[in-house]
Amino acid sequence: MARIDLVDLAHSYGNGDDPESYALKPVTMTWRQGGAYALLGPSGCGKTTLLNLISGIVTPSRGKILFDGVDISRASTRERNIAQVFQFPVIYDTMTVGENLAFPLKNRGVPKSEIDKRVAEIARLLDLTPDLNRKATRLTADAKQKISLGRGLVRSDVAAVLFDEPLTVIDPELKWQLRSKLKALHRELDLTMIYVTHDQTEALTFADTVVVMHDGRVVQSGTPAELFDKPAHTFVGYFIGSPGMNILSAEVKGREARIDGHTLTLARSYDALPAGAKIEIGVRPEFVDVAAPAPGLLAANIERVDDLGRIRFARVRVGDVKFAARLPAGFSPSGSAIGLKFDPAYVHVYADSRLVEGA
Ligand code: ATP
């Protein structure tokens, strides 16, 4: 397994020289050896492009990729020693499950005793042992995709294992199991893994570090808790969480934020915000407390309650501003009027969508 460095890496499919039009805008970052990474973002944000640059399917228009310090930007996929799992099963129907799992090892000339050991281990980890001698053609699509996962994980000497939306074809119930299984497999197998998905639950369950992409750009790389507690970009706040972060236009001066005539006190002071920038504050619904109206609370009205079973989110309105707030368990407002309290530690300030650190 390798440490992976992306150095000023960018790619254009031929849309001109302006980096703003690139499918992948210049990125420099390091992925540690043995880490579990997710590339997360909506359709078209550049996840597959970045994955294909790492695997060698696409050659970068600019910058470099290093594996353990060695420039492999122009090396073939085979030379890069990468294993890949795609959205749809890539297996041989005429072979047995065991033969399919053994194939990547045979292909690299691994001795038979080692192949047998490794295949047995992977089959055990993926609950495929009872199927080892069955022909793959008789299996369901779910089971076939499990074999694809096994084929991706069977070699212990790869630089990295890349997964491109591998659970798309999996039935929802099994998806839950496989998600946590992949996490456990990462711990057990000690491989560098990179997992592409547009599904935040998959990304947050699997990865130690989630790399969030938006419009061809890496906007934040961090642990699930960092992305949740301190989004570096308004897009991360909005995209992660359900519902996402409230992003409200505000005037911010020192420790005060004014929203539609109402004043909030901030935890830090913001004295040097860039002139002319669009200033917004972001606060997650989980950090807006809803209570009965009372002096000192921000007066608001509930417009709607989304009941998600154990969790309820209120859609509230303060003047002309609408946002979401979490309702405490057992709280039932007597009318639409409520009071709101923001936890200042979780109110963030953004200038042109980027987080500003207060002083
Ligand atoms: P999805 O989840 O839909 O696959 P993605 O986040 O993986 O999306 P990419 O497939 O990397 O995004 O696409 C990024 C941008 O590059 C998109 O605008 C896409 O249309 C464009 N693109 C991708 N592949 C090519 C290609 N072979 N030729 C030209 N443009 C491409």
From TrEMBL:
CDD domains annotated for this entry? ABC_Carb_Solutes_like
Q: Does the keyword Transport apply?
A: yes
GO terms for cellular component: ATP-binding cassette (ABC) transporter complex, substrate-binding subunit-containing
Localization in the cell: Cell inner membrane
Q: Please report the record's description of how this protein sits within the membrane.
A: Peripheral membrane protein
Any idea which GO molecular function terms this record carries? Answer: ABC-type ferric iron transporter activity; ATP binding; ATP hydrolysis activity
Domain ABC transporter: start-end pairs: 4-240
Q: Quick check: keyword Lipid metabolism in the entry? A: no
- Which keywords annotate this record? ATP-binding, Cell membrane, Membrane, Nucleotide-binding, Transport
Family the UniProt entry places it in: Belongs to the ABC transporter superfamily.
Instruction: List, alphabetically, the PANTHER family matched.
Output: ABC TRANSPORTER ATP-BINDING PROTEIN, MALTODEXTRIN IMPORT ATP-BINDING PROTEIN MSMX
Record's function text: Involved in beta-(1-->2)glucan export. Transmembrane domains (TMD) form a pore in the inner membrane and the ATP-binding domain (NBD) is responsible for energy generation.
- The name this protein carries in UniProt is Putative ATP-binding protein of sugar ABC transporter
Q: Which organism is it from?
A: Bradyrhizobium oligotrophicum S58
